[in-house]
Design brief:
Helix content is about 40%, strand content about 20%. With about 210 residues, the protein is α/β, with parallel strands linked by helices. The strands form two sheets. It has a six-stranded parallel β-sheet, sandwiched between helices. Strand 9, helix 7 and strand 10 form a beta-alpha-beta unit.
Length: about 210
């Protein structure tokens, strides 16, 4: 392998980023690909496992890591819980691995600024993908199924409208369809990018289903 690639996947809450990434890795054990597990202070949901879906930290522990300068990027989402990527989670990269990271739009911006300082071998080799919902009503319904309170749903929907405006800054936009369609789109991008030099932001490709 000539170089590592870091695949950064963003998209609104409830669009299916984690499901997509989990299935993609499970269905392609032949790929030298490792997901970087990020940290959060929010409590785990019923199906989530610490260390697989997130590193679930107490707020005081997260803040200690901030003081120690342990994060490559971190953000406070919706003015509530913290999310962040530990430097050491990237530093443990094996020579044959590509990396995959789920992070929100604000975290992506910080991450891309931090990469040259901490990991120069990844500079110019980051591939950003935005998983874009085809309609907002589907996301709203998913929030209701989670039994989110109405004021929280309204706050999240407002945030989603802002996040979607960042999509054009990414190398690739995947219009989210079925999970199979999203997997096919991600697989196509992965195979293209692990064979070729990373496209520039001006050469964005919108994957259509």
């Amino acid at each position: 392998m000539e170089r590592h690639k870091l695949f950064i996947i963003s998209g609104p809450s409830c669009v299916g980023k984690t499901t997509l990434v989990t299935r993609f890795i499970q269905h392609h054990p032949e790929y030298p690909l490792r997901r970087i597990v990020t940290c959060t202070t929010r409590p785990p949901r019923s199906h989530e496992i610490d260390g697989r879906d997130y590193h679930f930290l107490r707020k005081e522990d997260f803040e200690k890591e901030i003081q120690l300068g342990s994060f490559l990027e971190f953000t406070q989402v919706y003015g509530d819980h913290f999310y962040g990527t530990l430097i050491r989670s990237v530093a443990s990269t094996a020579p044959i691995e590509h990396l995959l990271l789920i992070v929100d739009v604000h975290g992506t911006h910080i991450l891309l600024q931090s990469i040259p300082e901490y990991f120069p071998f990844l500079q110019g080799h980051c591939v950003s993908l935005f998983l874009k919902p085809r309609d907002l009503e589907t996301l709203k319904q998913r929030f209701k199924e989670r039994q989110e309170p109405p004021d929280e749903i309204a706050r999240r929907m407002e945030a989603i409208s802002t996040e979607i405006r960042y999509a054009e800054r990414y190398h690739y936009i995947i219009p989210s369809g079925t999970i199979e369609e999203d997997e096919d789109a991600l697989d196509s991008i992965y195979r293209k990018e692990t064979k070729n030099i990373c496209a520039s932001p001006e050469e964005k490709l919108e994957e259509s289903h």
